[in-house]
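Figure 6 in text form: structure in, sequence out.
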């Protein structure tokens, strides 16, 4: 199973500041993910021609299943997280992670049933976009880990947390996520996939964490030239091997 995680910056280029959703489509189409976990997705906002972006991306790239969770409401429209899948969703829930006085944030939980040649597997996906300060992020992650969506899951559940962590130094992977049994599979230290800023990436803000019977076979960041123009982040791609039978 291939997962792509990307802060698409509403389809607005990080350098030219030009709105062009086709660049986003070109990149996602090139990497052919089974699941796309996206942040900063617009819906009904004038800057992005009032496009329902998650619906357009799902339609143009033949994702049969898509769910959108707004976190920030504007005078016209809103933006938030979207998860697109080639496998059906069995549950979805937007988990509010807002801190008073800070920009609203959220984590979009979805449960999917992924079918291979021989088996059908349940995966629990959490699409996150965390805050800008270290204290804010720690509070948000601790709140997330304490939600029913996660506390009800045992060690045999396959859980993937992915998105824009805004975590410049990897503190979350060494702290609360590690303490909860999660492993960062997009690299650590010098081996981390650098994703921000897109035109000259120096930080691995976009990360993927896993827990349970699945493993990463390969990970990389987007390297197409157009990828550096499409957003202010680069996407990360992870190829998973699902372990076990159910």
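Output sequence:
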């Amino acid at each position: 199973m291939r997962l792509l995680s990307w802060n698409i910056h509403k389809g607005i280029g990080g350098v030219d500041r030009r709105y062009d959703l086709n660049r986003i489509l070109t990149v996602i189409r090139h990497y052919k993910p089974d699941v796309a976990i996206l942040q900063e997705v617009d819906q009904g906002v004038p800057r992005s021609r009032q496009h329902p972006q998650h619906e357009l991306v799902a339609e143009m790239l033949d994702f049969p299943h898509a769910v959108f969770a707004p976190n920030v409401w504007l005078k016209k429209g809103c933006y938030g997280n979207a998860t697109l899948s080639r496998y059906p969703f069995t549950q979805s829930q937007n988990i509010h992670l807002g801190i008073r006085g800070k920009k609203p944030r959220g984590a979009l939980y979805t449960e999917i049933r992924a079918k291979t040649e021989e088996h059908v597997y349940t995966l629990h996906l959490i699409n996150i976009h965390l805050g800008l300060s270290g204290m804010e992020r720690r509070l948000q992650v601790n709140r997330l880990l304490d939600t029913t969506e996660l506390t009800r899951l045992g060690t045999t559940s396959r859980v993937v947390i992915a998105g824009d962590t805004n975590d410049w130094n990897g503190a979350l992977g060494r702290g609360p996520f590690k303490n909860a049994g999660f492993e960062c599979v997009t690299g650590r230290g010098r081996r981390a996939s650098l994703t921000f800023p897109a035109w000259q990436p120096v930080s691995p803000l976009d990360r993927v964490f896993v827990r349970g019977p699945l493993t990463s076979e390969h990970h990389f960041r987007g390297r197409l030239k157009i990828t550096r123009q499409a957003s202010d982040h680069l996407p990360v791609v992870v190829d998973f091997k699902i372990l076990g039978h159910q």
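Caption detail: The longest strand covers residues 106-115.
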